[in-house]
Structure formats: C-alpha cells, structure tokens
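Our platform keeps sequence and structure together, in a single record for each protein. Such a record has a labelled line for the sequence and another for the backbone structure tokens. The tokens are whole numbers drawn from a learned vocabulary of local backbone shapes. The remainder of this section carries one protein's record, kept here as part of the documentation:
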Amino acid sequence: MRKNRLPRRTLAALGTVFLLTAPTAAHATAPPPPTAQGLRAFQQSYGLDPTGRVDTATAQLLGAAPDSELRAAFADPSDLGPEQLAHARTVIGVGKGARIPEQGQVIALMTAMQESTFVNYTTPVDNDSLGIFQQRPSMGWGTAKQITHVPTASKSFYGLPSPTKNPGLLQIEGWESMEPGEACQAVQRSAHPGRYAQWERFARDLLEREGPTVDPID
C-alpha cells in the first residue's frame, strides 16, 4: 500500500528498480494517446524530465507522494501516462470479460488508483506489497509473478478464479449496495480505509471514457 514516507532528496538517491510490465495484448483496440499533462507536471515538479511516461524515478516518487499532490496531478483520466492507462484498461477488460457490473469496475479502478496510480510495481513499495493493487504474497494473494501480472491481479481483486483464496469483490456480501470506498476497503483491508473514496469521480470518468473501446479479457 502506498504511504507518504520519504522526502524528495531521499527518493532521488534511491537505486531501487521498478519493472513496469508492458501493456497486455488483450487490450485490442488501442486508445488515443493520453496527453499525460498531469504526469508531466508531476515529473517537472520533482525536477525530472517531463516525458509523460512512468520510469523508475517517477514510479518511486508516485509511490511516496501525498494524496494532495496526486489529486492535483491526476484531476482527469487524460493526465495518466500510457503505461498507467494500459493497466487501467486491463482492469476494465477483465471486468467486462467476467460481466462485472460497471459499479464493480469503478470500485476496482478506484482501488488501483489509490494503491498504485496504476503503476505495476514489481519491487515492494510497502512490506511485500506488489502490483497495481498492492497485493501481498505473504497474505496469500499469490506469487510475486502472479500479482504483477495485471490480468491475474485484476481477477484476484474481482474475486474471479485466480491463485488466491482471499475473498474478492464478488465474495463480499452486499457489495453492490455499499458505498464504493467501503467496497474497496472490504477487499483490501487497508490501514487507511477512508482514502479510496477520493478517486470515485476519477474512476467513473475513466470508465466512461475508456470502457467503450476496451475488449473483454477472459
């Protein structure tokens, strides 16, 4: 789970490598390129080259940035970089493939945005948390390889057949009538349950914009 931990100077000195997986081929129809203005502005604010793509240094900073900075940077789905958008589209595609209602897809998008800003962390950010949902091998969510495979991680979150026996969204009784942030927390069991709700509007806009061009992923 993302926390607000390290000052900028410390982060700049870190040498940890984050491997960001390539977009899944199952995305089918490619979306129009995002402007990534928010990501570029975020990079520039930390003295990075504003490429609009998530490299190692950007991933480190996103993982430790306070919520206020992230809300300012990602006010609109077009503020995401192409890697982030590809992972978001995978979450939507898996949901569509399993005929998860749109409300469930919104909940999944809210969760991934809060946990990782759709960065697929293959090196732990907090304890042994990995991937876009910050799932933990030590808590039974699967191996590191499984958790960092975005379609598999998405299936685990939704509660579809996957490597984990942990309850996913579909196993949460009454999730459809819960507040979306409460449903996120019911799956994630976070130490910061109130932080998911801030991304509801963003997630709904993201699904409305991207959903029609995403093919189902089985």
Summary: Residues 31-212 form one domain. Residues 35 and 52 are 8 Å apart (CA to CA). Residues 3-19, 21-30 have pLDDT under 50 and may be disordered. The chain has one domain: 31-212.
